[in-house]
Design brief:
Layout: E1 16-21, E2 24-25, E3 43-44, H1 46-53, E4 60-66, H2 72-85, E5 92-93, H3 111-115, E6 122-126, H4 140-149, E7 153-157, H5 163-172, E8 177-180, H6 192-202, E9 207-211, H7 221-236, E10 241-243, H8 256-266, H9 272-287
Parallel strand pairs: 1-4, 4-5, 6-7, 7-8, 8-9, 9-10
Antiparallel strand pairs: 2-3
Helix pairs in contact: 5-6, 6-7, 7-8
Length: about 290
Amino acid sequence: MSASPGAGAGPPAGGIVDAHVHLWDTGAMRISWFADRLGLPRRVGPADLARAVATAPVPVRAAVAVQAADTEGEARWLAARAAAHGPLPGPVVPQYDARPGDPAAWAGMAQPLLDDGVPVAGLRLAVPGGAADLSDVAGLDALCAGLAGTGRVLETLVRPAQLPAVAALADRHPELDVVVCHLGLGTGPPDAAWRAALADAAARPRVHAKVSGLHTTAEGDAERVAAIARAAVDLLGTERLLFGSDWPMSARVAPYAEIVGRTTRALPRLDDVAASALWSGTAARLYGITG
């Protein structure tokens, strides 16, 4: 991978694999964090996703559907939508919610889906409010071993102070592909502590990260996101970075096409191979997306 003067950073003509979207229906299931004050629709389904991505400058070939909450019923609902409407949404990543006392349930809440043969591309550990060393996550090493043993991905939704624990996890499970959502930062400032923690995690060759969930409506936000994107490319290379829109959360900031545009403008100039990796190739490899 290399940044290349004169080349583009935008998505290639071959299309986008969006590594981070959500679907939900609050009328069919409870979403624990959902509140009207967030300004989000009560239902977002495959047809809504298709309309959103149709505005992108190139085709969106597939979209990884990340579970919004943490119940088995919701995970099955999401998997059913993917089965009926894939690849938009395509691969499904349920949340990890431990099931203490059941050593066979290494996948926690999602274990019944795996046992029933429901296609699951990985599991997401969403614990930004937890301990910095992840010591309060029950069954964490069993989860990682189970994912690595079955060729699935571990996604982590963590804050910057938890990135060293993600690096330690990668050391303990060198056969596991780890994907850090939102670069372990999201809408925060790209300070020296975050960069150092990301650099440490990036030293583990199977740690990846999503360029997602970064944009805000704040004045001067473009400069902040550009600093984040440059650091990510410098530290990880595009072969370990994945574009994610974070739709429909991102729709509160800008429409889908504008999120693609803002991400394009934030990135350093990339050669064609590097741009293809970030916008589609890395995600396709990790989540087994073909076509």
